[in-house]
Amino acid sequence: MAGARVLPLVIAPTIANIKLHHVLIDGGASLNVISYAAFKQLQIPESRLDPSRPFSGVAPQPVYPVGTISLPVTFGTEENFHIESVQFDVAKVNLPFNAIISRPALYRFMAVAHYGYLVLKMSSPAGVLTVKGDRIAAVAAVEKLHALAAGLVPAASAKGSDPSPSRSRAPAKAPKVHPSYTDDVPVKNF
Fold first, then answer.
1. Entry pTM
2. 79 to each of 7, 95, 125, 130, 144, how far by Cα in Å?
3. Where residue 88 sits, what CATH number does that domain have?
4. Amino acid 157: pLDDT
5. In the prediction, which pLDDT does 79 show?
6. Segments forming the whole domain that contains residue 28
């Protein structure tokens, strides 16, 4: 995407009643993934995870998820929101995103992503819901992905150690999980 001068659509939906930043909307994939670190921040017990199968295409090697779980995902505000249940694979992956929401989940929301304008539009009870992307998070994600692809992040760095001092440019750091614990998060009672 960066070569085409198009940024990824990075947003901050509410997942399991916590606002989770750095979530990629990937309209071309069919895999919903949430990082293990973000899953731990949601404070959901691992006993709620169901078994999952390995997948590929996100990392150089196949990824063996910790498990899979269905979580409520909410876009919008208290006045205008849309909520759906999304099945996520919980995996320990080195990506600049806390989660990836893909095409099947977008179909559930009946959402349309426009990557040129960095917006996501969907229907809601109060009309059309427009969710704006986070341009700063998108640029940081592109820089991190470029550093990973260019090999500037050694394998040891991906596991948490410092990069080699012989590198001329330090790679971009992966964003941290930033949950928001506000009372204005829309919650739908089931």
1. 0.74
2. 29, 33, 9, 13, 35
3. 2.40.70.10
4. 45
5. 87
6. 2-176
